[in-house]
Amino acid sequence: MSTTNEGSGAVAAKVEAKLIPIHVMGKRYEVPESLTIMKAIEYAGYKYIRGCGCRGGVCGACSTVYRKPGDYKIYTGLACQTVVEPEMYLTQLPFYPALRTTYEFSELEGKPEEIFELYPELFRCVACNACTKVCPMDVEVLDYISALKRGDIKAAAEISFDCIQCGLCASRCFAEMPQYHIAQLARRINGAYLTPRAEHLKTMVANIEAGRFAEGLNELKAMDTDTLKKTYQERELEPATAGDDWTPKDTRYL
Amino acid sequence: MPYPEELKQLIKTVESTRVERVERKKKNEEVPFLSLDQRAEMLKYHPDVKEEGRRELMVGPSKGYRIAHEMADLLEARSRVDPAKIDLSKIDYETDVLVIGGGGAGTAAALYAKNNGAKVIIATKLRHGDANTMMAEGGIQAATKGHKDSPYFHYLDVMGGGHFKNVPELVETLVNKAPDAIKWLESLGCGFSKDADGTLRTIHGGGTSRKRMHYAADITGAEIMRTIRDEARNYPNDIHVIEFSPAVELILNDKGHCAGAVLYNLETEEYIIVKAKAVVMATGGCGRLHIQGFMTTNHYGATADGIVMGYRAGVGICFLHTVQYHPTGIVFPEQAEGILITEKFRGSGANLVNIDGQQFVNEREPRDVEASAIIKECIVNGKGIPTPTGKLGIWLDSPMIDMLQGEGTVEREFPGKFILYKRFGIDISKEPMLIYPTLHYQNGGLDFKNTGDTSVPGLFVGGEVGGGIHGENRLMGNSLLDIMVYGRIAGASAAAYIKEKYEDGALTLEHVVKYNKEADEAGVPEDRVAPMILPDYTDPRIRERQLTAHYVGTLR
User: Fold this and answer.
1) Is residue A195 a contact partner of residue B198, using CB atoms and an 8 Å limit?
2) Which range marks the domain in which residue B393 is found?
3) What mean pLDDT do residues B226-236 have?
4) Which of B108, B237, B287, B364 lies deepest, with the highest CB count within 10 Å?
């Protein structure tokens, strides 16, 4: 029996996709109309080294810039997520140079001035909004840059959360700044210095270091498989609807 | 793209049975769950138990072990480069620790090796951070809430998920070091979802007895990866990253210790020699081998390179007879192929239905049973739905959720997937999704200890490339944990090894020569080289016209 998932002649109503022309860096290829830009480029015979990553829209490797005939607009998208259109002409931008400063993160205090010192080009921003227009993730880039200029690190961290660091914003920036690196710093500062640390986490780490659970784990490691299975099956399950303050009946191993 | 006319016609069949199915669901008249015997019968269609899907390895330390053909093809293959042509006296880079792989495990290893005083090189196939880590959505497990959870219960859950076959010491270390891994990430500014007082939010995952899955919205892996990558970039003098240069062979020395690797610059096609006092293997998984022809959720670079290199250097393998398939991956639209559709859709009431609009399995069977039933329905029963790219799928009838729980539920509860499909012109609150099982995780890998050590001194392992932690089946939320815990351990152990046990010696690739000879003697066909490095998705019709026979200058 085959588990290979390929449609065969026995399959009813096999559907064939129509071929359409696209222009890869100016060169014309006929590709199936249903493909993403990435798969169309591979269909045409290219083999990716750069410009291809997760193939699922989260890694930022495959930024693509394209235009359509008779249309003044610059369009952008991720090659792995954007479907080809007839006569589109495109290029990928797998890398764009951007200055990234270094810093000793543990020595920061979480003040806006620290970001201003590390990235003074922030204040070269003329609010032209080209960054937001070009973002393939629909992040409001200008909004987070403006928030940072006001010193609102938390807002910048939240607005920039979906950033995949593809670099398209930096490529279009009139102020020549690396928005996505600045946003990364803002998110880290927000996470470490502007959000309270988890007290329960500190307690648990200390308890483990003090050896509180060693005996229980040794019991489990020494169990024969049948006893282990029984212990597993009888373990108490936190109900799906329980609140965070739920406590189990059996507290021996807590 | 939206559903083409042919599929829209087939959707009418799904619609014709929907009202009745919703009524049945409301009355709790479900398709009966399979008995244990029926489950066992159904699992005969699971790819893992398909004997013709695997074969005995003909060479190497785990010779005789039956694993997938696609993996065996690579493990038995010859080197990419003739070892005799490599001049090991010309060293291009020298370092303390060489980390192979720039994903979550490799980056954590590099930071911990650096923190313990070592100079580090990260060699990575694509960009730093191009890895499955980036794609992990769900979360990271750790018993951090002492009033209801502890490493004890985490241990039990991990063992149960792995069919009780996991290596106990590896699991013990995983669960004991889990909270500290979260604490480390928190200190680096990783944006976990929290309550206002700093309490980490946690939810259940499949097979968890306590809510211990921590998350950063629905991009947990990306948040972890970009945070630790940013941290690694702060130390360019201590952590040197060489991108687009995968390792293709480990280098040993005349004492049998691991002493570096041969890298391959993908762009200039040069081979590069790195001499190192210790090596951390952190190359991740193997989804791009498309075992048994399955689509995958994995990254472009997930091609099992580290297993090939480690195996040739003498490290055995374990648990590679099992591979994790997620039952519901997108099979259409083609541009989203392989992407996961969370179990939550089925939990919320969506049926699985065939081309006749009929149910064939309860939608809340365990993952392996569910995947088997879908495969059987498509391949054996011939009731799959054909896609425009010539694949088969099964309908996941998401519009039922709005009918059961009120209009707008799908959009509210599944915003990510709703938007993803909307971009393709499909409204999943009105039209069903086409799904098929998708290759998700490499449960097994190289043998290693809970210190990161392998049988080769100086070679350490961290992350998905290692086997044993998850036994025969990994639970959701334990892979991000694995790479954080064992990545850090591998880096720290490598740095400690340099101080305590490292011995210099003459570099050699003799183990590769020997391995190639063993393959010759076993009669392995000579048509393959490994590591694979990248999959090839060139259209076969194009490949037929790529006829250049010899390497002539820059024109192949």
Assistant:
1) yes
2) 5-30+325-439
3) 98
4) B108
